[in-house]
Amino acid sequence: MGNPTNEVEQYLFSALDWLRSKHHIRKGLALVAIAILLGLACKFAYDLFPRHYKLSISGGGMLTKSHHLAKVLQEEAARRNISLTIEPTAGSFEALNNLNDGTLDLAFVQGGIDPVGYDDVRQVASIAPQLIHFLVKGDVKTIHDIRGKTVNLGEKNGGPSIVSNQILRFSGLVPEVDYVETNFSDEQLLSMKPVWLPDVIVQVSYAPSAAVDFLVQKRGYQLLEMSFPPSLAMRMGWVADTKILAYMYQISPPVPATDIRVVGVNLNLLANKNVDSRAISALLPVLYSPQISSRFSFPISEENILTPSGFPISDGTELYISSKQPFMTAQFIDQIKVIFGLVMSLLSVALVVFKWFKAPKDDEEPTNKGGEDDAPSIADQFNSITSNISKLE
């Protein structure tokens, strides 16, 4: 019995020789191959053109420092062909819901929020920690003096409310048992008569904060030191040990009088998972540019980009990080070797295809005389090329 493999090869090469002899089929296949190559060329040429991205972003409330950061980012990004439309939100939860629904592309969101239920939200970057300001008045000198007082935590179950209640619980104070939570917005606090203001106001912001400036200088509030941030940071991943510098909010009398330790919470730039990864990769160099840090008056370091937030890392962030890797790495050299082998294999196949596309010998004018053999078949050509490659190896 003959070898089945050889019989299959004979049938295959016979079919190729038959196709080669059909002029119209051969020309049609050539046109298809040319169309595919032109399509690939157009795709690569399209990728070379500068792109313009349009994204929506939220920095939270109009009076927050994160909203100011969003505005600075908007102005700087416009110079890089990235248009950002700012859409203020009432708090972190509203921003997260909008991100998860896809009605918002990007948002600066306070850390410390459980990511469960936000499956379509991704982490783009983590910014330096915001400071949790505990503004107090009257006889409140320590955190234990908050017992029996009214404490304003902003939006009910919002980001500041969640993290502040955790801090107070860690201090032994139970919400709605040891203190009464109020939920006035910044706008309401700034327009409220002094007599109606809460005993304690919690503000989550970078320092200096315009709202804290007003409450200290116009309403007589003081800043309360939190003496346990290092311990709290070991228990809660979102906590950072930070401090507010002396004289930050008032010089005479000084507020605070000395550097005080406070709890910090990371600010995260989050995105919907379907946002173009190339747009995110193009926006991150703007966020970490010296112009942003200078105009925002606060250093924004790329070192914090992957500080865990609980959300998966976005494809755009991974694309940005990979673009900053060294060009010539061992892995890259290995890839070149593989590509070289692939190219040589494709060239071998291309030689066979080229000879196949050429007109058969019997269609051309005879040039041989004296009864020379006909043109070699596809099988003979293929075997010849394979033999030559083997000799090279």
Architecture blueprint of SSEs:
Elements: H1 4-21, H2 23-48, E1 53-58, H3 65-77, E2 82-86, H4 92-101, E3 106-110, E4 121-136, E5 150-152, H5 159-170, E6 180-182, H6 186-191, E7 200-205, H7 210-217, E8 222-223, H8 229-235, E9 239-244, E10 260-272, H9 277-287, H10 290-296, H11 315-323, H12 330-357, H13 378-392
Parallel strand pairs: 1-2, 1-3, 5-6, 5-7
Antiparallel strand pairs: 3-10, 4-7, 4-8, 4-10, 9-10
Helix pairs in contact: 3-10, 9-11, 12-13
Structure description:
The protein is α/β, with parallel strands linked by helices and 393 residues long. It has two domains: 14-46 and 340-367 and 374-392, no CATH class; 53-323, Periplasmic binding protein-like II (D-Maltodextrin-Binding Protein, domain 2, 3-Layer(aba) Sandwich). Helices cover 43% and strands 17% of the residues. The protein has 13 helices and ten strands. It has helices at residues 4-21, 23-48, 65-77, 92-101, 159-170, 186-191, 210-217, 229-235, 277-287, 290-296, 315-323, 330-357, 378-392, and strands at residues 53-58, 82-86, 106-110, 121-136, 150-152, 180-182, 200-205, 222-223, 239-244, 260-272. Strands 1, 2, 3, 4, 5, 6, 7, 8, 9 and 10 form a ten-stranded mixed beta sheet that branches. Helix 3 (65-77) runs antiparallel to helix 10. It is elongated. The protein starts with a helix and ends with a helix. The model has no long low-confidence stretch (mean pLDDT 80).
